[in-house]
Amino acid sequence: MTARVLVVDDDATVRDVVGRYLGEAGYQVDLAADGPTGLRAARERAPDAVVLDLMLPGMTGLDVCRALRAEDDRMPIVMLTALGEEDDRVLGLELGADDYVTKPFSARELVLRIGSVLRRSRPPESGAEVLVDGELRVDPAGRRAHLNGRELALTTREFDLLAYLLAHPGRAYTRSELLAEVWGWEFGDQSTVTVHVRRLREKIEADPTRPRRIATIWGTGYRYDPGVTSA
């Protein structure tokens, strides 16, 4: 089935170029020029992914992202940000955006990013082993995670990061290694990893301020330590 992508940007040129590249890549494309229209389109058309500009008239991209995440944890969201909007970009990640692309950007790069996040949001074609650590269970085939019998509300990238760390317990990874293995980025803002780790800790740690499952290795990155007390 052809994936549907919603592009929300108030710049008509950006909408046209991104929409054309996505169409040529085989996607169905919906376009919206402001926040309220984009949010309404997302609710009515149920896209497989959303490309969301940070600065939008009527309703900011951050507000749209917040509203979408309150309704759907799994729909991939890729944010478009300007070079000087680092704080807002981090806030977008905190609100649940899966990826971001900084303007000015290559439309071809954006299409590749969308393809990557869509592939990761789908269950693998063949069954994969369920990952278990005490009361934490991660099912890669079903793309579901449970802790103490309760399903965790994870975004696409949060699920990917948790599954990757849980599949490689006891090994320390740098942020750049996690960017490459989980995001598929050869370079990028390493704060992306930091924010996603923080969000994961809030969902799987008994005390996120004193994490026991996802340990910080100072000067290196992070390590998953199995066999700890459940959250």
TrEMBL record:
<dbReference type="InterPro" id="IPR001789">
    <property type="entry name" value="Sig_transdc_resp-reg_receiver"/>
</dbReference>
<dbReference type="GO" id="GO:0000976">
    <property type="term" value="F:transcription cis-regulatory region binding"/>
</dbReference>
<dbReference type="GO" id="GO:0005829">
    <property type="term" value="C:cytosol"/>
</dbReference>
<dbReference type="GO" id="GO:0006355">
    <property type="term" value="P:regulation of DNA-templated transcription"/>
</dbReference>
<feature type="modified residue" description="4-aspartylphosphate">
    <location>
        <position position="53"/>
    </location>
</feature>
<dbReference type="Pfam" id="PF00486">
    <property type="entry name" value="Trans_reg_C"/>
</dbReference>
<keyword id="KW-0238">DNA-binding</keyword>
<feature type="domain" description="OmpR/PhoB-type">
    <location>
        <begin position="128"/>
        <end position="226"/>
    </location>
</feature>
<feature type="DNA-binding region" description="OmpR/PhoB-type">
    <location>
        <begin position="128"/>
        <end position="226"/>
    </location>
</feature>
<keyword id="KW-0902">Two-component regulatory system</keyword>
<dbReference type="InterPro" id="IPR001867">
    <property type="entry name" value="OmpR/PhoB-type_DNA-bd"/>
</dbReference>
<keyword id="KW-0805">Transcription regulation</keyword>
<dbReference type="GO" id="GO:0032993">
    <property type="term" value="C:protein-DNA complex"/>
</dbReference>
<dbReference type="InterPro" id="IPR011006">
    <property type="entry name" value="CheY-like_superfamily"/>
</dbReference>
<keyword id="KW-0804">Transcription</keyword>
<dbReference type="InterPro" id="IPR039420">
    <property type="entry name" value="WalR-like"/>
</dbReference>
<dbReference type="Pfam" id="PF00072">
    <property type="entry name" value="Response_reg"/>
</dbReference>
<dbReference type="InterPro" id="IPR036388">
    <property type="entry name" value="WH-like_DNA-bd_sf"/>
</dbReference>
<protein>
    <submittedName>
        <fullName>DNA-binding response OmpR family regulator</fullName>
    </submittedName>
</protein>
<feature type="domain" description="Response regulatory">
    <location>
        <begin position="4"/>
        <end position="118"/>
    </location>
</feature>
<keyword id="KW-0597">Phosphoprotein</keyword>
<dbReference type="GO" id="GO:0000156">
    <property type="term" value="F:phosphorelay response regulator activity"/>
</dbReference>
